[in-house]
Amino acid sequence: MKAGTIILATRNKGKILELRTTLAGFGFDVQGIPDDFPETEENGATFEENALIKARAAAEALGMPAAADDSGLEVDALGGAPGVLSARYSDDMPAVEGESKDERNNRKLLEQLADVPDGSRSARFRCCMALVWPGDEFPPIVSSGAWEGSILRAPRGTNGFGYDPLFLDPESGLTGAELTREQKNGRSHRGQAVRLMLEKLRARMEEGKA
Ligand code: ITT
Fold it and tell me: Most exposed among 45, 56, 116, 127, judged by the fewest C-beta atoms under 10 Å?
């Protein structure tokens, strides 16, 4: 396979913004999934299973290589929750009018951690990426990344998406939502995973096996 067209199998606009530049820089023509593409049920037990489920569904339906990311936040004081359920974390809470899903997730996280002292709020973002080809000629490429940090008591910043305003990067002292997109990509779980995926793909292409 040459670095041709690749489907980015996600509906999350934040992920698309972060991944598109890196993939385009590698020479890919990046396409999203069509608006009417059916929702894929993410019933895997791990980030890797869910990334493979999403990428495989798009690759087979659209007949093109597809990359998907499954990611989430693991909070130590919550035993690793919300983990693979990060996107659906606050689905059990009534929505406040005008509140986005990300805002509701963040509100629940702050409520759950209200009594947890500052020194015990460690957390990490994890991301698993899968690149899948249609058919069974080429095996999938899977890569992952992790970004260590801690959870603040109030949101800071307006960049990024999801839990970024509450996630403090210890090296910079800034939240995921205060870092620029380039700074976040340089250190984030997703930045690590996509760079590793591209390294593995480059090695495959050099062997003539992709
Ligand atoms: P797709 O399945 O369509 O890709 P999604 O948003 O449902 O979109 P996931 O199932 O992978 O994606 O859920 C990821 C959850 O973790 C979601 O709530 C995100 O907001 C959060 N998350 C993942 N990466 C993040 C990041 O870099 N910054 C902040 N939050 C992040």
Answer: 45
Are 79 and 70 a contacting pair, CB within 8 Å? no
CA distance 116 to 54: 35
- Residue to substitute in 8, 13, 15 for testing ligand 1 pocket (most ligand atoms within 8 angstroms of CB): 15
Give the residues across from 69 on adjacent strands: 129
CA angle in degrees (0–180, nearest 5) for 20-23-26: 145
Angle formed at CA 28 by CA 23 and CA 32, multiple of 5 degrees: 75
Q: What is the pTM of this model?
A: 0.96
**pLDDT-flagged residues of the chain (< 50):** 1
DSSP letter at 82 equals B
Question: Exposed, middle or buried: residue 198 (CB in 10 Å: 0-12, 13-18, 19+)?
Answer: buried
Residue with tokens 């999938």: 140
Ligand 1 mean position, distance from CA 13 (Å): 10
DSSP string, 17-47: HHHHHHHHHTT-EEEE--TTPPPPP---SSH
Residue 70 is a catalytic residue: yes
Rounded to 5 degrees, φ, ψ at 5 are: -85, 140
| 127, 189 contact by CB (below 8 A) | yes
